């Protein structure tokens, strides 16, 4: 494999998707605590990011800190429990659940809510895709601050700081089962797990035994080219039947799942297909134009095998992780899916 630059990605756009898990959770200032819990209420404790998350009774004032987390809560039948949704500008909720979110207050458009905004919603449970949303240095409420206020904070398993490099698509199943236990909706949670696993199994069966095309996953911002080589993004390609030309064994991805590369590095790999994340239609078009102009002789470009996926669907702990596996597989193996 060609050497890859180990310089880490720090662009503003990546900070909302790829690099968010790098931000450390800060302590910040203290906040006012909530009233003592009812000692007679049921207490549920689950493990999350190496810590205990304990809730007393069933949370009734919940905030989803991204559309992916909001969607999971809605599909579990918890719309009446929600007092806030955040980062709504990063992804449109699917049509079948969007109406359920119509009356849920919006706490932020494309960024997490500030400490004051979040605490002003008076939540008792906050569900986040990564630890970035709890970075005190960014003006957000830290996990420690929420603990002091008696607010339970839960991070998607794949977005835990220590998990980000090794995250897998089925980390989502851990989250669903934990949420099922916390909210007393175990059957609903298990139904979502079973459906997602069935979808993954269907893809695996369709591509079983077929030669795996060599695929590079990249991200383009302006003229900056980044390769993805670890984390849940890598696992999505693996499950879709791709032989990823960049992987965790490459030294460039020893500490971070993305690394900036030169055009020459990508050209030397000559991948059969390219997968790239885009934040919107304009970003997708700009990326296609860059790849076409920069790599006209690359097999992936020459054969028109440039596969765009939604940046929001690469966030840890989202059903989009599962749907992207099928989306990529269908374009890598059109004959296997009747294409």
UniProtKB/TrEMBL annotation:
Q: What positions does the domain Fe/B12 periplasmic-binding occupy? A: 61-336
Residues of the signal sequence?
Answer: 1-37
Q: Which PROSITE patterns match?
A: FE_B12_PBP, PROKAR_LIPOPROTEIN
Q: Which residues form a coiled coil?
A: none
Q: Which organism is the protein's source?
A: Jiangella aurantiaca
By sequence similarity, the record places it as follows: Belongs to the bacterial solute-binding protein 8 family.
List the protein's name: Zinc ABC transporter substrate-binding protein
**UniProt keyword Phosphoprotein, yes or no:** no
Keyword terms, alphabetized: Signal
């Amino acid at each position: 494999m060609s050497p890859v630059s180990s310089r880490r990605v720090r662009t503003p756009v990546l900070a909302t998707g790829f690099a968010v898990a790098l931000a450390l959770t800060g302590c910040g200032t203290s906040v006012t605590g909530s009233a003592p819990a009812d000692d007679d209420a049921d207490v549920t404790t689950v493990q999350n990011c190496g810590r205990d998350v304990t809730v007393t009774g069933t949370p009734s004032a919940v905030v989803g800190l991204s559309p992916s987390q909001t969607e999971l809560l809605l599909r579990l039948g918890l719309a009446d429990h929600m007092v806030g949704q955040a980062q709504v500008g990063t992804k449109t909720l699917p049509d079948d659940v969007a109406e359920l979110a119509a009356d849920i207050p919006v706490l932020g458009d494309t960024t997490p809510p500030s400490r004051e905004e979040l605490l002003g919603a008076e939540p008792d449970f906050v569900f986040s895709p990564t630890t970035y949303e709890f970075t005190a240095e960014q003006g957000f409420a830290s996990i420690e601050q929420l603990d002091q206020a008696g607010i339970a904070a839960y991070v998607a398993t794949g977005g835990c700081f220590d998990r980000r490099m090794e995250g897998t698509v089925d980390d989502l199943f851990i989250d669903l089962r934990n949420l099922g236990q916390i909210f007393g909706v175990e059957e609903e949670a298990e139904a979502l797990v079973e459906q997602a696993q069935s979808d993954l199994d269907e893809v695996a069966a369709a591509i079983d035994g077929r030669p795996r095309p060599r695929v590079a996953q990249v991200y383009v911002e302006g003229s900056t080219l980044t390769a993805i080589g670890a984390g849940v993004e890598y696992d999505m390609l693996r499950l879709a039947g791709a032989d990823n030309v960049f992987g965790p064994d490459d030294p460039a991805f020893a500490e971070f799942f993305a690394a900036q590369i030169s055009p020459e590095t990508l050209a030397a790999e000559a991948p059969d297909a390219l997968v790239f994340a885009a934040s919107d239609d304009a970003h997708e078009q700009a990326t296609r134009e860059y790849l076409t102009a920069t790599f006209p002789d690359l097999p992936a470009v020459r054969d028109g095998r440039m596969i765009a996926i939604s940046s929001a669907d690469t966030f840890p702990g989202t059903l989009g992780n599962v749907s992207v596996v099928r989306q990529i597989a269908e374009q890598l193996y059109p004959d296997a899916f009747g294409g």
